[in-house]
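User: Please predict the structure of the protein below. I'd like the answer in structure-token form so I can feed it into my own downstream comparison script.

Assistant: Understood. Taking the following sequence of 659 residues as input:
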Amino acid sequence: MSQEILEKRVLALKYRPHRFEDLVGQSTVSQTLSLALDSHRLSHAYLFSGLRGSGKTSTARIMAKALLCSNGPTSKPCEVCDNCKSANSNRHLDIIEMDAASNRGIDDIKDLIEHTKYKPSSARFKVFIIDEVHMLTTQAFNALLKTLEEPPAFVKFILATTDPLKLPATILSRTQHFRFNKIALSDVIHHLSHILNEENIDFEKDALDILARTGQGSLRDTLTLLDQAIIFSKGRVNTTSVVDMLGLIDPKLMDNIFSIILNKGDINQIIKDLENYEVSQICDEMSIYLKDKMLNKDRKFDLLLFDRFFRILSDAKHLLAINSDGGFVLILTFMKMIEATNLKTIDDIINQVEKIEVRKETPVVKTIEKPIEKVIEKIEPKIVENPVVSKPLFEEQETKIEEVTPFDEVLIQTNTIVDLGIIDSIEVSNLDLSTPFDDLPTIPQKQTIPVIEETKEIEIEPIIEHQVQANIFQEIEVVPIEEVFEEENDIQNELYEQLTAKVYDRDHELGECFEKNFIFNGFENNKLYITSYAQDEDRKLLYKYFGIIKTFAQDIFGNDVELDFKKEEPSAVEKQTLTQTSIIEKREEISPQEEQINSTGSMIEDIEMSSGCVASMNDNTVVKPSQKELELNDILNSKMLDKAKELFDIKKITVKTRS
């Protein structure tokens, strides 16, 4: 090829490598092939794969020339023999190069196989170079298999592709596979500077860095951009011309952007300057800028700030991927980056919390003794007062009193805070204040710290005189004092019912056996207490499905639940059934007798207690052992009810179960 024609070619073709030493960034491949040629350990088929512009086709041509050189096979062709000259000018008859993208059918492969039957015309080998081999059809691959596996001794195959995953495994197993790596940025810059020095063109290193980064590891793409930059910059490759040519953001503008972000300045001017750029390109340029600053260990940024900025840019790319408005995404990204500079690290927050001084405030205790003494003097025997406990287990509800007494008048006039410790110290010996709830456990009061409690306001409704004469029935609402305990039991019972329903859903027979033999005793400290009455076949059935029952219990009560079984004889269940039956009979006998009493007097309705009292009176079947109840006689003969009779002169009592 004449020197004049060579001078007019583009840089990618003009500076195509002709020796293994000229390959850029592929030292592993060039070294392996050179040693194979020198040691005469040659394969009949080679496969070159890698990124576009990484040197696959150039290496295939160098390999073919090295095989056909008159002094070869050698890793260093002489470049003066007829074979080398013909190979360099792409005119050698024994080097057959085929583009599989345009010759991909089975007929083309048949023609190629036909050529393999004839010996080379002038050289030692006949070399077939098939470029973009992954474009062949399945039938063409199948037709090539036999020839590729056992070609004639004078035939060599060199296959090149950018997508080796599309090749059949049968092709891959018949070739030596060489993977071409992405060319390093430093190697590309060094090669560009060498070419510009050969061409006597001035350049700036930053401009070459931008060109190499834009080429993304492809040397052919980078050389094409360099050709364009030489033309655009009028013979001098500088940063400004390269940035303008590629449509990238000027590095000075990028410095200004991050300066405003770090100083929390106004971003309106930045938004106007970036209107001509794509938002995705801006995000990419900012990521490259931050990566460069991270590698150079810029003091303006710390590791935490790098992490936050990269996360914000990643979120921006995600928003753009779902077709969000580009301008909105850009403004949001800048505002988030400015806000990220205000965030404190965990260590800073901990140090700030440790510096806070804790202020100690002493509680003020106010005790008023005189009003209490007056109240005690005016207490009448008809007032029922529950003993004051420091921290009761259950909260007391408000009591509505429809009759104003002298004691109530004193309480109305006194709106001050009363120390309940003083009331506990007052002796009230003349009143019998015992109730059925005296046996409940209480927590002893601590004397070290005085407790201040506010007295609850008592609602007092005025009674009109003619209404009292007309209505001889007085309604007293007795509110349960163990409501919290009842709610907890109700929740536990509902959970146990869910467990039973889940066992029924699994197997109806298993559910009946479970409900008949297991009695719920409570749930406390991640332990499910169950009383078991299972015998014989039922016991075997429950033991067989114990794993399923335990799994259901963990789903409902928590993964840490443990099943605590207490075995009892079936006779205990029968006794409880008889006891419940007797209670129901007594209830039926007492109710008709009480209905015959004169209807004049007061009436107490809806006596509702928690599970510790009469919560189970409405059950008509076997009562669960976890519920404790009082019999009807215990309620009617209780001291609290007797005291209520004395206070209100009650002549009729009706007990209704909770429905």
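That's the full token string. The radius of gyration is 48 Å.
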